[in-house]
């Protein structure tokens, strides 16, 4: 696949990038270079290769997913200007 200057101008417009007419030829060449790299990657045989998230094989640290109240109600409410019965107290705004 080859990108011409018209296609490069259209891509620039879709990306909302202002490109001067003189720079379109260089942009088209850059696009063609990128597409060439992609074509090279398409040629690599990856059959049976496990996908990886990083270059160092390691498991993510995990913790049990338990719902708690945080155990800090007193600490949290200590910053409140007005707290009653374990909750934030706010002025009534709807009548």
Automatic annotation (TrEMBL):
This is Aspartyl/glutamyl-tRNA(Asn/Gln) amidotransferase subunit C. The gene is gatC. GO terms for biological process: glutaminyl-tRNAGln biosynthesis via transamidation; regulation of translational fidelity; translation. It comes from Citreimonas salinaria. The keyword rRNA-binding does not apply. Pfam families: GatC. Belongs to the GatC family. Gene3D superfamilies: Glu-tRNAGln amidotransferase C subunit, N-terminal domain. Its EC number is 6.3.5.-. The lineage of its organism: Bacteria, Pseudomonadati, Pseudomonadota, Alphaproteobacteria, Rhodobacterales. It catalyses: L-glutamyl-tRNA(Gln) + L-glutamine + ATP + H2O = L-glutaminyl-tRNA(Gln) + L-glutamate + ADP + phosphate + H(+); L-aspartyl-tRNA(Asn) + L-glutamine + ATP + H2O = L-asparaginyl-tRNA(Asn) + L-glutamate + ADP + phosphate + 2 H(+). It is an enzyme of class 6 (ligase). Allows the formation of correctly charged Asn-tRNA(Asn) or Gln-tRNA(Gln) through the transamidation of misacylated Asp-tRNA(Asn) or Glu-tRNA(Gln) in organisms which lack either or both of asparaginyl-tRNA or glutaminyl-tRNA synthetases. The reaction takes place in the presence of glutamine and ATP through an activated phospho-Asp-tRNA(Asn) or phospho-Glu-tRNA(Gln). GO terms for molecular function: asparaginyl-tRNA synthase (glutamine-hydrolyzing) activity; ATP binding; glutaminyl-tRNA synthase (glutamine-hydrolyzing) activity; transferase activity. Heterotrimer of A, B and C subunits. Keywords: ATP-binding, Ligase, Nucleotide-binding, Protein biosynthesis, Transferase.
């Amino acid at each position: 696949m080859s990108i011409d200057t018209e296609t490069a101008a259209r891509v620039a417009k879709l990306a909302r990038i202002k490109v001067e007419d003189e720079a379109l030829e260089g942009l088209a060449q850059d696009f063609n270079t990128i597409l060439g790299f992609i074509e090279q990657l398409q040629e690599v045989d990856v059959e049976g290769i496990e996908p990886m998230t990083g270059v160092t094989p390691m498991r993510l640290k995990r913790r049990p997913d338990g719902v708690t109240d945080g155990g800090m109600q007193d600490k949290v409410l200590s910053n409140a200007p007005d707290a009653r019965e374990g909750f934030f107290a706010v002025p009534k705004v709807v009548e």
